[in-house]
Design goal:
single chain, alpha+beta, Alpha-Beta Plaits, 4-stranded antiparallel β-sheet, two-stranded antiparallel ribbon, 3 helices
Amino acid sequence: MFLGRYDYDGDPSKLAAAYDRMMADIPGEAVPFHACVTHADGLSVFDCCPSREVFEQFSTSPEFLGMMREAQLPAPRITLLGDVHVARAGDRRIV
C-alpha cells in the first residue's frame, strides 16, 4: 500500500463539511486506509492506494477532481509519502 497526503487550506469547519459531502457516497471497501485531520490551517487527508502508480493516477484523475469540485473542496497540495509498513487501528491491523 502507498500513502499520500492531500492538504487543503482554509476554514477547517467548512473544509470538513465539504470533505464529508465528498465521502458520503464512497463505499468503505473502496477506502483501505483513510484519515482526515483538521488543524489551524485547514484539513489534511491521509489516503492509501494499492501502489504509488494507482495513487498518482487517482489523485489526478478527472473523476476525483470532479468529486472535489462538486463537494466544493479547493485544489489540494498533494504529497507522495511512501510505502506503508503497517497501519493499525487498536488491535486491528489494517495494512
